[in-house]
Amino acid sequence: MQKKKIILWTLLSVVILFCIYTIGGSFYLINFALQPSGKDNVGKVTHINDSIYSFMKPWTDSLNNVKAIHDTTIINSEGLRLNGYYIKSAKPTRKTAFLIHGYKDCAYSMMPIAYIYSHELGYNVLLPDLQYHGKSDGKAVTMGWKDRKDILLWAKLANTLFGNNTEIVVHGISMGGATTMMVSGEKLPPYIKCFVDDCGYTSVWDEFNYEIKEMFGLPTFPLMYSSSAICKLLYGWSFGEASALNQVAKCKLPMLFIHGSADDYVPTRMVYPLYKAKPQPKEIWIVKGVPHAKSFQLNQKAYIKKVAQFTGKYIK
Question: Is domain 39-203+242-312 annotated with CATH 3.40.50.300?
């Protein structure tokens, strides 16, 4: 009898410890991933951009001298106030680039890409801060999934700002690339013409599953399942439903996929099922030897040429 009690208490203790580990670990992972500290701000990002790109400071100084960078905001369906910036082309044009930043970045982190479209190609440019980034409101990072609805509101504003007859390319990097793909599967307005995904992930589940193994050395079960369920409870979406892969499969508009061959943050292997799932028209550029989100930094002339050639087919 005593032996049975010991066994039962041991089993109960194991179950309790397992539950504590699972629930506690899940909340830790949710907070770590979706409510990160140390978000980038304009000052920090500007300093980084100026130190990396020789063209950046002269170009932004010239824009600031004529007050060409404008602030703007929208209110989304949840009542969140979202911040953004826009730059009108020096000459009136329908060509417009909508640029989406990555995880823990802000709109200004996309200013090097804005240089391509604004300075080199003569586009209007809109750069939003996604939820919980930059100056935008938000309870937590949504990894692009809830942001996809906001992007359509921003695109509507861009069309209004730049003349109600725009032709828009949506171009995102990393989480911004995933956001771009998530947008692509929605019902789209006629002024969105094409997409550029630079190193976006297949799904939030796949990316978090990869990171939990790489960063923490932990198995998928049970933490991924419990964390996803808690995310659904707290924020209204789950890791599994936040799928760029499912969204690109519904996209009929042109898309250019860019990915560095040495990417070990969003592993390069993710781009191949994305490219396969996307119906034509589509193009892919694997940039040899390049780590995560460095394709433009390390291949500036080739990147500009590739983007110009691709967008030039669909935006006139």
Answer: no
Q: Please state, in angstroms and as integers, the Cα–Cα distance from residue 94 to each residue in 19, 89, 161, 180, 184, following that order.
A: 56, 9, 11, 20, 20
- pTM equals 0.93
Lowest mean pLDDT among 30-34, 173-177, 264-268: 30-34
Q: Where are the domains of the chain?
A: 1-34+204-240, 39-203+242-312
- What per-residue confidence (pLDDT) applies to 14? 46
Please state, in angstroms and rounded to a whole number, the distance separating the CA atoms of residues 270 and 284. 13
C-alpha distance from residue 65 to each of 60, 124, 238 (Å): 8, 18, 45
Find the DSSP H helices in the chain.
Answer: 2-34, 42-52, 56-65, 111-115, 147-161, 175-184, 204-216, 223-235, 244-248, 271-277, 295-298, 300-312
pLDDT averaged over the chain? 92
User: What is the pLDDT, as a whole number, of residue 18?
Assistant: 47
Q: 289: phi > 0 → left, psi -120 to 50 → alpha, else beta; which?
A: left
In degrees, to the nearest 5, what angle opens at C-alpha 280 toward C-alphas 110 and 162? 40
Q: How far apart are CA 125 and CA 139, in angstroms?
A: 27
Both structure tokens of 140: 């937590």
Residue 127, pLDDT > 60, answer yes
d(CA 2, CA 5): 5
Amino acid at 34: L
The pLDDT of residue 38 is: 73
Distance of CA 153 to the CA centre of its chain: 16
